[in-house]
Amino acid sequence: MANTRREFLVNGLCVTAAVPFLSSFALPRAGGGERVLVVVQLTGGNDGLNTLVPHRQDDYFHLRPTLARPRGGLHALDDDHGLAPSMKGLAELFAEGKLACVHGVGSPVPDRSHFRSMEIWHTADPDGPAGDVGWLGRLGDQIAERDPTVLSAVHVGDEDLPLAMWGRSFRSPTVRDPQGFRLREVDAAFERGRDELVGRRRSDGGEGVLGFLRGAARDAYGAARKMEELAARSSPVEYPGTGLARKLELVARLVSGGFGTRVFQVSLGGFDTHSRQAAVHDALLGEVSGALTAFQRDLEHQGVDDRVATLVFSEFGRRAQENASRGTDHGAGAPAFVIGAGVRGGLHGELPRLDRLVDGDVPGTTDFRSIYTALERDWMGLAPSTGVGALELFV
Amino acid sequence: MRRGVFESWRPKGGDWDRAAATHLFRRAGFGPRPGEVERALADGFETTLERVLANTAHDRRLRRGAHALLAAGDVETLQGWWVSLLVDDGAQLTERMCLLWHDHFATSDAKVDDVRLMHRQNEIFRELGLGDFRAMLHALAKDPAMLVWLDGNANKTGSPNENFAREIMELFCLGIGNYTERDVQEAARAFTGWGTAGRSFEYHAENHDAGGKEIFGRRGNFGGEDVVELVLAHEACPRHVAQKLLEELVHPEPTGEEVQSLARFLVSSDWEIGRAVEHVLRSALFFSPRARRSRIAGPVEISVSTVRALGARVAPVRVARTAEEGGQSLFRPPSVKGWDGGPSWIQASSWIARHNALAALAGAHGGGSDEAEVDLRAAFGGPESVGEVPGAVTEHLLPDGVDGGYFDVLERTARAAGGMDEALSLVTALVLTSPEYHLI
Predict the structure, then answer these.
(1) Measured between CB atoms, does B364 come within 8 Å of chain A?
(2) Longest CA pairwise span in chain B (Å)
């Protein structure tokens, strides 16, 4: 197969060699519990240029006559970059060294289709036809292999289970909220019968879809029982009243309460800002920043922040030039964020040059898979999805 | 001679049984009502199929009822109205196709934010969903809900918005790999000038890019209608539509040969979807073991078909909410891709939602159902004793039969119950919440 891909730049300083997985890479467990990965998906394609603003480049203001953010309102990260005005909380985490911003993250084979691009991020496979196993599902499989009794990966939210969380053998459950996870009681005879019916296996071993349904039902009943125990807990940290905050609050409760889950994904939609972007985008970034900051403070309060890392990504960035509807169309590279007490805070990767756009886009200059490898191998101590070298994101 | 892929089914002897009739009713509608299978067996396959195919006319009052409800302006009311049509006996096949097209041309009130526009789009599916696919596609391209949903009203010369142009190719008609990025960009230029004024489609000539375009290798001064025609003439289009029909009506993983064959039939029958549907429903393939109970029922299907199977009287908004809790909110699909369906329906929380709703419908929480009027005994042909309950319930809800182990659990539960009503409730709840029931 001819390799026509653009040569992918990996920043030499930040990349370690791709090494096959060995369990000895696993770092010692911190804080008595296992390390946890939380992924926050910004669905629709977040406008990276108006999130992490390269305000020293004059082209930014030329390309965005109505959407450019004035320098004054930004939260400065260094001389050249500032976070959007509504992202005060994340700027504080940056100052505390707990936020890594990675410039120009994208796929070596960029695609402007939401679905294809999301598939690429979810499967960590920019080349192949989309399989049905996602990168977080692979982690879930590995964890479940060691301890089948634990729900290794959980999707929190009311969306469909993302492809990222589809495992080969382990299937992540979705938790909407603790209430939505409660089984209404019937009576003991019914419950015995029900458990017997879902516990059955066919003697010939050929189970197919029915076997899948039985497994899913068994998992659901097991998780419902555990959830009931955790539902009573609460945190003294106040979260904003947003959807993303509610999801992350539940994640924090499950982590600190010892639910045993090590991989979480949550998402926030609405980033497909083709028209009249400004107010909507500000509100979304405010929701992201407020929720993540409360989440981090909660983890700190519970004393589990040293074992949680959070990745924030979107399927692509947006076109550098704004469109005539005061919005932006689908683009390519965009910043990704990693948050945590164990994270090497600061700016990583090659900063985007607006005078060197590719097809009107900020190109992806950091392969998203280098972040995955860092999270999978260096943080979680598990086998990475690909052989792409890791960004040095962890101390 | 080689037999055709969609060779007609000619049931012999016991082939036309409860399981076959239920299969037909579940796929061409939302399952049988009490007594409907018995009538189908008495009438025979051909008469029943004719009746299913002609099941396309609602009570006019029911359909018109929407207009009074729309003034309320909230999507829950609109969902309730649609559920009342889904449950109704009047047009089961029509409504099955409405739901199919709603999933395919997935448009959400989350962005459209106007129930009148959502209702109008729903009526396009109802009126054209069994008719000429080409006419439906043209109507949808100019449908105000679609224009708002995919930014067709923000598409101007000089800065074309690619959203609709991309999805008509990627999701609606062709599939990835059958067009280029450039085709999308050029098609977006052709759609410039289309937009909405109030709740109507309007063309603004001053916003239209009248320059030459090249789409699928053909050059011309194309406008929006031309793009729709070019998409329809693309060889991938009938395959894409056939794939959707087969996944929904027959089997979640149709073979390439099946897709190709139905695609050819669709083109040769002048894109009449109703004829393609009849072609499928008449086929031996449709009734084959591979097709039977091969799909995981979606939340709307499971809720509506259970209400019908039990002959339950439930507030339609309540049924809609149940489906929403199970992961399928009508008029609010998660994205333009629609619902992923299949295994993705079943997650821990959605399974628990199904479990709770179905157990409640069966009145298993004690003291009968608090949300529905249900006469379980009548629904299952009037079993005379507790001992007859497991047989009567499974005959109606799982007509393909259950094995001995499954039946033992039902018998034990029935015996442990305190009397006929409780036995009916608990056994029904066990069957409804068992994984077997969710395969249709």
Answers:
(1) yes
(2) 79
B304 and B274 in one domain? no
Q: Which of A235, A227, A246, A239 is nearest to A302 (CA)?
A: A235
Over residues B28-55, mean pLDDT: 97
Q: CA of A281, closest CA in chain B: separation in Å?
A: 15
Domains belonging to chain A, first-starting first, are 12-179+239-379 (3.40.720)
Domain-embedded: residue B213: no
DSSP reduced 3-state for A221: helix
Strands B313-314, B372-373: pairing kind: antiparallel
CB B23 within 8 A of CB B36: no
Find chain B residues with C-beta within 8 A of A169's C-beta. none
Say if residue B269 is in the same domain as residue B318: no
State the sign of the Cα–Cα–Cα–Cα dihedral B80, B85, B88, B92.
negative
Same domain? B253 vs B378: no
B403, part of any domain: yes
Q: Which of B339, B355, B439 sits opposite A183 (nearest CB)?
A: B355
pLDDT given at position A144? 82
Domain end marker among B249, B281, B313? B281
Q: How far apart are CA B231 and CA B241, in angstroms?
A: 12
Shared domain check, B377 and B323: yes
The verdict on B273 and B350 lying in the same domain is no
Cβ separation of A113 and B176 shorter than 8 Å? yes
pLDDT 10s digits, A183-198: 877 788 898 999 999 9
Only one residue has tokens 């409804």, namely: B432
Residues B400 and B328 in one domain: yes
The string of pLDDT tens digits covering residues A122-164 is 999 998 766 778 999 999 989 988 876 677 899 998 887 899 9
User: Is residue B361 one of the residues assigned to a domain?
Assistant: yes
Residues B303 and B268 in one domain: no
Q: Is residue B191 a part of any domain in this protein? A: no
Q: Please indicate whether, in this complex, the C-beta atoms of A184 and B360 are within 8 angstroms of each other.
A: yes
CB contact under 8 A, B409 and A112: no
Q: Do A325 and B154 touch (CB under 8 A)?
A: yes
Give the count of Cβ contacts less than 8 A between chain A and B. Answer: 149
Residue A27: per-residue pLDDT: 34
Q: Which of B151, B350, B356 sits opposite A183 (nearest CB)?
A: B356
Cβ–Cβ below 8 Å for B426 and A189: yes
Q: How far apart are CA B220 and CA B69, in angstroms?
A: 46
Q: What is the structure's pLDDT at A25?
A: 32
- Total domains in the fold of chain B: 3
Smallest CA-to-CA distance from B344 within A266, A130, A161 is with: A161
Domain of B41? 13-53
pTM value is 0.73
